[in-house]
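Figure 3 (text version): structure tokens given as input.
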């Protein structure tokens, strides 16, 4: 990553930060094209253990005094067993597990994630275990003096990047053809939901995006917020600008009208529709014609499922066909239902209020399901409907008192979107800021 890139350290940015960063960016615009292209998306989602060569300190341990060995957590593997095999007594393991309960319970440790055994010398017993639940954090289970458990945030920088593209067959295709992060599709669709019908994207539609990406040791680790989006189709040109302060966060068009809908389009990010709403579908398991009154989103087991709008949980239970499912009421008209969950999110039970975007459960294949997916069902006045065909009300309008501050933010983001090179021939992307 070039030192010229706008960056902030490990914190959410305020609008002022963004404006400051963008101002810096505008001074550097001429140098963009000399900055080497960033790692591709496939690397972006893979977390590797390599730290910079100069760094002697890894996860808080000086590698001149400690040996760190990297492993991947296996299926049905327990921290207690790992530590016991590495020379720790059952008494110390019990003390550690007890200490960990309220900080980072060892039961939360998942197969497939990375962990490290730390020793004072390569033949000695373990003196700590470091668990890496995600690229932005690590947990140290420390057995050196007293038993101690600590969650540490890794230092990251937030860079502002842009992307543009043109739809050839589908928006999904336009994104994947360019190695763009799948998450950007969701972010764009939600940000422009009121102005663009993404159910009917056309050949030749164009988009431009400006968004944040988090980096650790110059490697991309996750997407941040979408700051602005532009979409052009046969009906016109549309902008969506992120505006947020202490009270709210939302996307608005150039005049400050909300561009989001009251409902998110899909209950799972990074998902694809594996089966559409169809009143005449042939059922793959039951081998007869049974209407499919939902939309199936395929995603890996354990992917978070989010509430598509604010609401109150009315059911969080198990049924033979539905498996584990959640149903919620949003207002007098609409209810939504999420089927085949692997498990519910903590605290999800009838009567609980949830916010739009909140995780309510995780993708699974409980009940009658061929593979991990969410069967998403949308109820309008107690009848099931195809939510992708429904014209939902827009999100709440912006408070008029906010408009002057919003216009400043709009002008800044819009001027940047206008600077992003439009696509003029094949699919071209510029994510090299
Ligand atoms: Zn279904």
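Below: residues designed for each position.
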């Amino acid at each position: 990553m070039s030192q010229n890139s706008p960056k902030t350290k490990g914190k959410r940015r305020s609008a002022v930060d963004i404006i400051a960063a963008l101002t810096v960016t505008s001074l550097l615009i001429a140098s963009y094209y000399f900055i080497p292209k960033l790692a591709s998306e496939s690397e972006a989602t893979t977390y590797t253990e390599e730290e910079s060569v100069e760094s002697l300190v890894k996860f808080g341990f000086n590698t001149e005094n400690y040996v760190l060995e990297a492993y991947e957590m296996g299926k049905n593997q327990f921290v207690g067993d790992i530590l016991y095999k590495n020379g720790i007594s059952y008494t110390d393991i019990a003390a550690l597990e007890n200490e960990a309960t309220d900080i980072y319970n060892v039961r939360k440790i998942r197969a497939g994630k990375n962990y490290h055994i730390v020793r004072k010398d390569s033949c000695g017993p373990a003196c700590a275990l470091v668990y890496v639940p995600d690229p932005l954090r690590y947990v140290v289970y420390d057995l050196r003096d007293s038993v101690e458990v600590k969650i540490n945030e890794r230092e990251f920088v937030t860079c502002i990047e842009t992307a543009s593209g043109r739809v050839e067959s589908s928006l999904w295709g336009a994104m994947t053809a360019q190695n763009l992060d799948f998450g950007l599709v969701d972010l764009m669709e939600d940000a422009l939901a009121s102005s663009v019908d993404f159910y009917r994207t056309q050949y030749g539609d164009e988009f431009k995006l400006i968004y944040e990406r988090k980096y650790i040791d110059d490697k991309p680790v996750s997407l941040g917020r979408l700051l602005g989006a532009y979409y052009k189709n046969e009906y016109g040109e549309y902008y969506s600008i992120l505006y947020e302060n202490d009270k709210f966060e939302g996307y608005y068009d150039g005049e400050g009208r909300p561009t989001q809908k009251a409902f998110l389009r899909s209950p799972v990010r990074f998902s694809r529709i594996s089966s559409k709403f169809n009143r005449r579908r042939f059922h793959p398991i039951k081998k007869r014609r049974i209407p499919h009154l939902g939309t199936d989103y395929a995603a890996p087991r354990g992917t978070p499922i989010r509430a598509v709008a604010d609401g109150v949980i009315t059911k969080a239970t198990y049924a033979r066909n539905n498996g584990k499912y959640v149903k919620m009421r949003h207002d007098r008209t609409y209810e939504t239902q999420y089927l085949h969950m692997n498990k519910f999110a903590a605290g999800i039970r009838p009567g609980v209020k949830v916010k739009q975007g909140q995780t309510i459960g995780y993708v699974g294949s409980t009940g009658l399901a061929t593979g991990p997916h969410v069967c998403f069902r949308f109820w309008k006045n107690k009848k099931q409907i195809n939510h992708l065909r429904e014209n939902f009300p827009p999100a709440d309008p912006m408070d008029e008192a906010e408009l002057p501050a919003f216009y400043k933010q709009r002008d800044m983001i819009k001027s940047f979107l206008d600077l992003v090179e439009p696509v003029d021939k094949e699919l071209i992307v510029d994510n090299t800021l």
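The helical segments are 15-27, 41-44, 79-85, 90-104, 171-176, 182-191, 403-419.
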